[in-house]
């Protein structure tokens, strides 16, 4: 075969290839060996699927529905190019009894459109909007594998890891952010054996490139016009944007502005002192000086006093994270979390908020049991010692590396504390 990403070479008998692939699939699920002539891209995907604990009789799970799905789709970057996908692929999908599908960067289906009867059949295997089709969830499939390997791919019949998907053939290509290069998701055609052709792979790849070109031409999405914005997650010094300018705030000013966005009704001087300073000896004069300096660098008239308050709404990345957690959009929440809130801050109220945000997200990740999301948290600086997350990850992705790290953490937990580390007695 000249192109390893194409499922069938010209002249191949689809029926005969299906019989060969079914035997190969049964061999792999029985003994773990991949016989010829399974393509390397498929063999590698089967192995990843097995390591992730996917079973051949599994099924996709629907993670978002109704209002939650609509809110998540509306925020996703690929929503901006859905009209293009429909224009280029919609008629082809409907006339050919195929489906047009678009997934996010975690291979969660956002849109599934096309021939009504085909869509109804696909619904029986949960190939529906809101369902997760990552390799780690349902094994080898074109959208999930395209996202996993970052390039266009076809998956033909029994090349699918899960048996109930094996009557189908799909072709997908990833769509990248033209500014950052990261994968935003994938566009997919799903249908019958006729899609196992070089032309369908080239077609889907061309559509993905067209979408990337359109995204490059579109102006970046902006917040509501003239609404100031505060970015404080994952940063020791918050970024304040307003009126076309960006300011990096000092740590103390970052803390003050975070707290005032949390209290639109305002805070008295005494309340701010308690919220900001561990040291009770700090005087109101010190706080007033900080507020005077902050007032000079913010938008004119934004910071008022008696009580101290913001006179206009300020959008914050903390608010975005909380909204996504409240709606159950855990994947979107994880994406919106670049790190803890003002991690170097020791202001008591900021410390409490930082812990609450982190605990809320990690609890949602553990409950979701998504190995990719758990792995992202566990391998981040803030999650490398998170025993509960490592235990959750080991339960669903028990690789040697994960088991080794979990064993090390549990050994540290069980180790006796040396006497030098004991707190000194205060008794006389």
Automatic annotation (TrEMBL):
SMART domains: Trans_reg_C. GO terms for biological process: phosphorelay signal transduction system; regulation of DNA-templated transcription. It comes from the Bacteria. GO terms for molecular function: DNA binding. The keyword DNA-binding applies. InterPro entries: GAF (IPR003018), GAF-like_dom_sf (IPR029016), OmpR/PhoB-type_DNA-bd (IPR001867). Keywords: DNA-binding. The keyword Nucleotide-binding does not apply. Residues 244-310 form the OmpR/PhoB-type domain. This is GAF domain-containing protein. It comes from Streptomyces luteolifulvus. The lineage of its organism: Bacteria, Bacillati, Actinomycetota, Actinomycetes, Kitasatosporales.
């Amino acid at each position: 075969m000249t192109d390893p990403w194409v499922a069938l070479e010209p002249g191949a008998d689809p029926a005969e290839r299906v019989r060969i692939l079914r035997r190969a699939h049964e061999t792999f699920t029985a003994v773990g060996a991949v016989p010829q002539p399974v393509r390397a891209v498929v063999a590698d995907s089967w192995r990843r699927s097995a390591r992730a604990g996917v079973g051949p009789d599994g099924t996709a799970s629907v993670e978002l529905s109704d209002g939650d799905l609509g809110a998540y789709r509306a925020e996703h970057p690929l929503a901006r190019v859905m009209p293009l996908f429909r224009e280029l692929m919609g008629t082809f999908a409907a006339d050919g009894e195929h489906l047009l599908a678009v997934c996010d960067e975690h291979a969660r289906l956002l849109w599934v459109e096309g021939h009504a009867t085909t869509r109804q059949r696909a619904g029986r295997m949960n190939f529906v909007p809101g369902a997760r089709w990552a390799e780690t969830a349902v094994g080898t499939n074109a959208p999930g594998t395209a996202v996993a390997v970052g390039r266009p791919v076809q998956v033909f019949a029994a090349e699918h890891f899960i048996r109930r998907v094996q009557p189908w053939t799909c072709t997908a290509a990833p769509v990248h952010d033209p500014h950052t290069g990261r994968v935003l998701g994938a566009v997919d055609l799903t249908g019958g054996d006729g899609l196992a052709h070089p032309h369908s792979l080239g077609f889907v790849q061309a559509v993905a490139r067209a979408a990337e070109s359109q995204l490059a031409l579109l102006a970046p999405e902006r917040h509501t016009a003239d609404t100031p914005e505060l970015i404080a997650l994952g940063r020791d010094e918050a970024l304040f944007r307003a009126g076309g300018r960006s300011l990096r705030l000092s740590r103390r000013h970052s803390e003050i502005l975070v707290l005032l966005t949390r209290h639109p009704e305002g805070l008295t001087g005494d309340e701010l002192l308690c919220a900001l300073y561990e040291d009770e000896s700090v005087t109101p004069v010190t706080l007033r000086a900080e507020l005077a300096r902050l007032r000079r660098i913010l938008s004119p008239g934004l910071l008022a006093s008696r009580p101290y308050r913001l006179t206009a709404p300020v959008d914050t990345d903390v608010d975005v994270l909380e909204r996504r957690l409240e709606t159950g959009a855990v994947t979107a929440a994880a994406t919106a979390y670049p790190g803890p809130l003002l991690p170097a801050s020791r202001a008591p109220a900021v410390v409490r908020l930082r812990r609450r945000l982190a605990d809320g997200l990690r609890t949602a990740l553990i409950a979701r049991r998504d190995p990719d999301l758990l792995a992202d948290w566990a391998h981040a600086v803030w999650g490398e010692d998170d025993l509960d997350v490592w235990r959750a990850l080991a339960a669903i992705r028990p690789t040697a590396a994960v088991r080794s790290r979990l064993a090390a953490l549990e050994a540290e937990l069980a180790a006796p504390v040396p006497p030098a580390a004991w707190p000194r007695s205060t008794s006389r």
